[in-house]
């Protein structure tokens, strides 16, 4: 990257403008980090908390709760993106974060109503997702405030900050697990502070801090693909070096293809993220508290892995290009899900297995079920562990060994961040130096649609047919995506390269 002080840079951009531009970009890195912490800080505890507050909720409803976040984001992203094209980016960013703060506070009170608590959780997560629509604003700002030379590095840094937030979210959640399910209660305002509500209260506090930083430090900046300052309706300072935005047609086929690729990448990770907790509880007979703790540690480790991948991508992309990394990432993801397919002749523990093993020899199967139904739980807080008898596939599907699961998680943790950052980096380059708020809004909306369909798809399929069918279909989807990428490979080039203004 060029640095302030060099002769070439001084011709294009003043040092004062450079410093202001990069301070604003770094503020958005921090915004992405703080927002990601707020989004992810409860992800592993949603399923146990849902079971605790509403006994009518099952694994299929979990998919809808997680999908509600993405539905809110899908609706909000084009709105905030359009808003950012015509008004200072401070406005949509501040409003969106405030909505997330309010939604986190609502989540802390979903236990209060006497009934239908699961629907209050559904609404709370949907509003958090609506606030998450600011991702489109952040990406469009960074795409417009960086040259082609700086773009991949800046997008990788954005993703690294997001990944770091997703690391610390589960870490904080894991630490709060030490409080336990009971915690303490503030009767005056009917607030329970326990392992489920403490994380969202911290997320709300971080959101308030985020708003303050944006209002104080963020400034508007736009440059063209070469790094020259552009005229911008949102730009607050006049400059004699401003240039008009280059004109030209955007390759709409490349735009649509990239949206589809981004959809599939987010779809795959959303379903993996959703199924981690039910899968580990079914396969390894973990309790709710164990699932929150262990799965939080696993996702935190994947977050660390993702940050390392993002840093490596910045160097690797200069040698082999973004398209090759995207293709390689999809192949690695396919291998990860193929490894996750269940094999062998060892089966998961069934929830009534302990009672069956300890029953008297002449007890009939019907008597066992009646005894199970009437018998009190060994742990009133946790309940039985293992694969539920309601899921018929538990009786004939081999278990996924822990080594299988961890190996698959590592591979998905390599492939997903590579595909994620490369897809929207390519997208920003395809769009060129024009305002990208609306386009980035549609990209974020396609990712949100994936996060809606992914959890619903996997929760329904997993509950009804089990992991073998679910992960086999995922492998098929990834193969089709690889074929699409190969078909449009030559069209995924930068706007300025396509129009002959800059050499690839």
TrEMBL record:
Q: Which InterPro entries match?
A: MFS (IPR011701), MFS_dom (IPR020846), MFS_Domain-Containing_Protein (IPR051068), MFS_trans_sf (IPR036259)
Q: Which residues form the Major facilitator superfamily (MFS) profile domain?
A: 24-493
Q: Where in the cell is it found?
A: Endomembrane system
* Keywords from the UniProt entry: Membrane, Transmembrane, Transmembrane helix, Transport
Which membrane topology term applies here?
A: Multi-pass membrane protein
**Record field: transmembrane:** 27-49, 61-81, 93-110, 122-142, 163-180, 200-218, 253-272, 292-313, 325-344, 405-427, 439-463, 469-489
Q: Which domain of life is it from?
A: Eukaryota
Q: Name one GO cellular component term.
A: endomembrane system
Q: Which GO terms describe its molecular function?
A: transmembrane transporter activity
Keyword Transmembrane helix assigned:
yes
Matching SUPFAM superfamilies: MFS general substrate transporter
What is the official name of this protein in its record? Major facilitator superfamily domain-containing protein 8
């Amino acid at each position: 990257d060029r640095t302030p002080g060099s002769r070439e840079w001084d011709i294009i951009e003043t040092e004062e403008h450079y410093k202001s531009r990069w301070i604003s970009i770094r503020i958005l890195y921090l915004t992405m980090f703080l927002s990601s912490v707020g989004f992810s800080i409860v992800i592993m505890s949603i399923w146990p908390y849902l079971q605790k507050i509403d006994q009518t909720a099952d694994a299929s409803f979990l998919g809808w709760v997680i999908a509600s976040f993405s539905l809110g984001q899908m609706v909000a992203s084009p709105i905030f993106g359009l808003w950012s094209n015509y008004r200072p980016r401070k406005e949509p960013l501040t409003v969106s974060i405030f909505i997330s703060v309010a939604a986190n506070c609502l989540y802390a009170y979903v236990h209060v109503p006497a009934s239908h608590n699961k629907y209050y959780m559904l609404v709370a997560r949907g509003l958090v997702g609506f606030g998450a629509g600011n991702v489109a604003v952040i990406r469009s700002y960074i795409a417009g405030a960086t040259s082609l030379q700086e773009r991949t590095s800046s997008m990788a840094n954005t993703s690294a900050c997001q990944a770091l937030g997703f690391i610390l979210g589960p870490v904080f959640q894991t630490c709060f697990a030490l409080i336990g399910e009971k915690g303490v209660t503030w009767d005056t305002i009917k607030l329970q502070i326990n392992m489920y509500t403490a994380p969202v209260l911290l997320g709300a506090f971080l959101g308030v801090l985020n708003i303050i930083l944006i209002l104080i430090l963020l400034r508007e900046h736009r440059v063209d693909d070469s790094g020259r300052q552009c005229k911008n309706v949102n730009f607050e300072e006049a400059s004699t070096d401003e240039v008009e935005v280059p004109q030209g047609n955007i390759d709409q086929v490349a735009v649509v293809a990239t949206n589809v690729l981004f959809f599939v990448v987010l779809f795959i990770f959303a379903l993996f993220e959703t199924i981690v907790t039910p899968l580990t509880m079914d396969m390894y007979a973990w309790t709710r508290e164990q699932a929150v703790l262990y799965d939080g540690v696993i996702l935190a480790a994947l977050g660390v892995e993702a940050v390392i991948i993002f840093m490596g991508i910045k160097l690797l992309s200069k040698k082999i290009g973004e398209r090759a990394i995207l293709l390689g990432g999809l192949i690695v993801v396919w291998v990860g899900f193929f490894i996750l397919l269940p094999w062998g002749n060892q089966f998961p523990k069934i929830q009534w297995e302990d009672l069956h093993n300890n029953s008297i020899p002449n007890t009939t199967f019907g008597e066992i079920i009646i005894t199970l139904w009437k018998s009190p739980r060994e742990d009133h807080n946790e309940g039985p562990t293992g694969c539920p008898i309601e899921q018929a596939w538990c009786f004939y599907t081999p278990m996924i060994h822990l080594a299988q699961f961890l190996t698959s998680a590592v591979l998905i943790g390599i492939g997903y961040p590579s595909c994620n950052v490369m897809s929207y980096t390519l997208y920003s380059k395809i769009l060129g130096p024009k305002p990208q708020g609306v386009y980035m809004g549609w990209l974020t909306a396609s990712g949100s649609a994936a996060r809606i369909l992914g959890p619903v798809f996997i929760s329904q399929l997993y509950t009804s047919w089990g992991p073998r069918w679910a992960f086999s279909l995922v492998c098929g989807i990834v193969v089709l995506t690889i074929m699409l990428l190969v078909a449009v490979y030559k069209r995924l080039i930068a706007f300025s390269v396509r129009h002959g203004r800059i050499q690839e």
